[in-house]
Known about the structure:
The protein has helices at residues 2-23, 33-54, 62-80, 93-105, 130-134, 141-149, 173-180, 193-207, 216-243, 245-258, 271-282, 289-294, 299-304, 315-326, 328-359, 367-382, 401-413, 428-457, and strands spanning 112-117, 123-127, 154-160, 389-392, 395-398. It is mostly helical. β4 and β5 form a beta hairpin. The chain starts with a helix and ends with a helix. Mean pLDDT is 92; it is low at 419-423.
Amino acid sequence: MxxxxxxxxxxxxxxxxxxxxxxxxxxPGYHPGPKIWLDVIVGLVExxxxxxxxxxxxxxxxxxxxxxxxxxxxxxxxxxxxISGADASQIPHQIVDPFxxxxxxxxxxxxIFFRAEHASNYELATIDCRAMAQNLNSPSAxxxxxxxxxxxxxxxxxxxxxxxxxxxxxxxVAHELGHAIQDHITPDxxxxxxxxxxxxxxxTSRLAPLGHKYGLQENILIRETLQNWLNEFKADAVxxxxxxxxxxxxxxxxxxxxxxxxxxxxTHPPSDLRRKQLVxxxxxxxxxxxxxxxxxxxxxxxxxxxxxxxxxxxxDTLFSEIRKSHGEIQAAICVELIELFDAMAPTVFSAARDYxxxxxxxxxxxxxxxxxxxxxxxxxxxKLIPPIEFQHTGNWKPTSLATILNVGWIALxxxxxxxxxxxxxxxxxxTAAKMEQLHELLLKxxxxxxxxxxxxxxx
Length: 459
């Protein structure tokens, strides 16, 4: 027993040392989220070490206390993996403060941290250790303090690492933050109840020849799928309202590289339906985003962008293609929900816009703002001058992240030098280098606009 006890003590000591090194590490923007999470894990390790110390005064319980220490140490070690990629070597430090400003403006009070991983993935995950801590015997004072210091559940935003982590693509983070507020967006969908019932009839008719009856389990599944799709449209709507065209280009640029499938299933609506609704939004209004972009020669791109993200075929063909991979019941539900969501999507987007306006009108990125941003910043950016600030009523103001992302996307999609003799698109051999240069310029814009903002706040 003493050998096992010594081994556990050695493991916990090494884990505590690793945590100390991580706590001393630099995190992007000196953001407190990672260290709050690390403090929780430290508290778990301290609790496990307390179990080992308790053996001295409770030798009869040695086996149980040792087992508890081993289990808790293993749990603490596994929880450490959740913060992998959160250090400054993986996340561009410039973007964290603007992201946190979005978080604050959206009234997201949860403790949050950002991390990158070597995967084509944007994700919002919730983490909650309160129940585990409450079920522990004799939790350490440090653990109780760490639990009390966090706003639970904690949120972790994952973005792709360097190869796919080009700044304009980070507009997708607006979608992930949309999931954090999705329950506050409450569109009135009561008028679509007849269409929902028609959808159920179509699912029933599609399944009957295959020997499936529509019953309780099928009804639960269609409602779960409907809610998941609804949440994705809410998050898309938040992304669009926050950053306008930049979200469209970022989302489908990402799907072009990483998706290349229909995208539909129990958790997500088809990608082409999401594209259809975003294009619809980009074209809405007297002065639309589309009309502004037309002046930048980007009009064809909105409809032709991301050509390898396929459109869904006709319903019967789609069902035949996905029935094996999704299962016949789920495939039937997905196929028949498309028509319903095509009708409901504008209502969902309208509700999201109203909710964000209610939080702060400044959260809404408008076509008028895009027009101003293009006029002020596009030509200078092509001359390698990053969009840091602008003059307003005689005073210099820092540019917003939404401005930087949109001007960056327009420059990225139409790479050319701003001089009289260079009006053609850059040759393919030079494109990658120019895109990397643009990425660095935009990061510099974010960094210096933040410096301008801090200067203004502390004058």
